[in-house]
Amino acid sequence: MSKTFLPSRLIGRGFTYLTAILIVLWILIPIYLITVAAFTPREMIYDFPKELVPKVFSTDTMRFFLGAYKVLESFRNSVIVAIISVVLSITIGAPAGYALARYAFRGKDVYSIAILSTRAFPVVILSIPLAVTFIRWGMYDSVFSVALLHVAMALPTTILVTSSVFLGVSRELEEAAMTLGCSHLQAVLRVVLPLSLPGLAASAIFTFVLSWNEVFAATILTLFNRTLPALLIVQIDQSPIAYRFAGGFFILIPAVVFMFFIRKYLFTLWGITLK
Amino acid sequence: MNPKRMKLEPYLLLLPSTIYLVLFFAWPMIQAFSLAFQTDDGQLTLSHIQRMLNDAAFSEAILTTIKFIILIIPIQFILALVMALLMMEHLRGSNFLVYIYAIPLAVSDLAAGIIWFSIFTERGYLNSFLSALGLIDKPFIFLNYTTPWPIVAVVLAEVWRATSIVFVILVAGLQSIPRDYTEAAEVFGANYLARIRHVILPMLKPSIQVALILRTLLAVQVFAVVLALAGRGVKVLAAEAYRWHGEYRNPHMAAAYAMFILAISLITALFYLRALRSTEQSVL
């Protein structure tokens, strides 16, 4: 390419930008369309042909969805499940991540490989045997049970991500704190944790999104205490399309917003399988 | 700090996660096994598996899954490779590009299904667009499961949603290729396509392997996209497991389906690991 003349290089460059922009449109247009659909007045939702650029903006459809039977309750359940999942996966996963980052010990490789290989297992199918167990234990149809499975799904990633976050905090600082009189625990709490906070937050957001989005296990493990995706999917055939459009938009938005906050950690969070 | 405590610390730190994964990962896996291969009173049996194999929905679900794998994965890999190579071009605004390209990572399969439903439904955006172009005068029913259109819709929704994960894995892989290699190839007169074919793709092999495993596993478990777009017209394995559990109240059959999903996932993972490793050795 570098040997070609300037005009053809310019054309090549133009073509590269054009491709990049076309892919941006491919990703953004469907998001734009569901947004338009969710803010179309309810009486216009069956109109054909639909306006690709809407003339009327209305929160009618969204209000209809949020006011529908059990929607707010399921929304609350989704948030609770996601918060429990975040708290549990960080408190259980971060210590393991710290151990992998800071210590050399026997069995470290076995542990790391075991954690990595959990990815070859379709974790959601565990919800079927777990449903049987939870019924036996009297824990079926509770937000806590759903969270327990979401933690099982998020834990391997949390361990690997927190381990790479702790690796990024210099060991010298931790040791300096200890020579200055901190105990090891104090050094971790006062020096390592504050420095790794952004990375831990990214890991927490990852788990939140995973839990917020998860539908299969949530549907299997609940009956009346549905999370929002579970509520949407069990009645997807019967619900009016206004309900579906608004629901789709509503579960989409937090994901897009959260993605913005963790964009710096993209490759740590999703590219980590390479190690 | 005494040396003995030093030794114990990492194990104590790993203990909670190990216990957790044994309780909520390994143990249910064993439970799934016994549900699928045992009767209610604990006798070993193949009857659930046999019943699943004879289920009409089963062969249909397998066929659909194979169609998805064949159609989705090649499109995804080509698109993801193009997206990843664009990142290497140091375009202006490439930070913005990465964010946009990564958005679908956070989109759930259910949301993606609903989004594409708004496009493909009878009075949806695709028909509106075609009508604005004057190509149709009344809406065409795409999501009619006697036609191949619902499959097309699911394929597009999956390509839209899940190409980003392949993209991220490939970019991470591309960044680890030293610049000297491609520059050397360029000096020796290799054009852009030749450089991709003979330098970049071989070096990307480990990333491609990871992405292939991940994508195939996800394709085998596909669930909410299909339900949102095609309802019950298109049958897939996970939806059958869900149906046996939720509607027919038969955990044995649900577990049989789950075990089947598990089995093909592990077999595919092993297959890819072997296949890609042996080609690598033959190159060396």
Structure write-up:
- The complex is a heterodimer of chains A (275) and B (284).
- Chain A is built from twelve helices and no strands.
- With 275 residues, chain A is mainly α.
- Chain A has a domain at 69-229 and 260-274: MetI-like (MetI-like fold), CATH 1.10.3720.10.
- In chain A, α1 (6-38) crosses α11 (241-261), α3 packs antiparallel against α8 and α7 packs antiparallel against α8 (184-213).
- Chain A is globular.
- Chain B has one domain: Orthogonal Bundle (MetI-like fold).
- In chain B, α1 crosses α12 (251-283) and α3 (56-87) crosses α7.
- Chain B is globular.
- Helix content of chain B is 77%, strand content 0%.
- Chain B has twelve helices and no strands.
- By secondary structure, chain B is mostly helical.
- Chain B has helices at 3-37, 47-54, 56-87, 94-102, 109-120, 125-132, 149-175, 179-187, 192-220, 224-230, 237-246, 251-283.
- The N and C termini of chain B lie far apart (49 Å).
- The chains are: A mainly alpha (275), B mainly alpha (284).
- At the A-B interface, α1, α3, α5, α6 and α8 of A face α1, α3, α4, α5 and α6 of B.
Short structural description:
The complex is a heterodimer of chains A (275) and B (284). Chain A has 275 residues and is mainly α.
Q: What is the CATH homologous superfamily assignment of chain B?
A: MetI-like
CATH topological fold name of chain B: MetI-like fold
Oligomer: heterodimer
Rounded to an integer in angstroms, the radius of gyration calculated over CA atoms of chain A is 24 Å
Number of domains of chain B: 1
What key phrases describe this protein's structure?
heterodimer; A: 275 residues; mainly alpha; MetI-like fold; 12 helices; 72% helix; 0% strand; B: 284 residues; 77% helix
Topology:
The complex is a heterodimer of chains A (275) and B (284).
Chain A: H1 6-38, H2 60-67, H3 71-102, H4 108-117, H5 127-137, H6 143-167, H7 171-179, H8 184-213, H9 216-221, H10 228-234, H11 241-261, H12 266-270
Chain B: H1 3-37, H2 47-54, H3 56-87, H4 94-102, H5 109-120, H6 125-132, H7 149-175, H8 179-187, H9 192-220, H10 224-230, H11 237-246, H12 251-283
Helix pairs in contact in B: 1-12, 2-12, 3-7, 3-9, 5-7, 5-10, 7-9, 7-10, 8-9, 9-12, 11-12
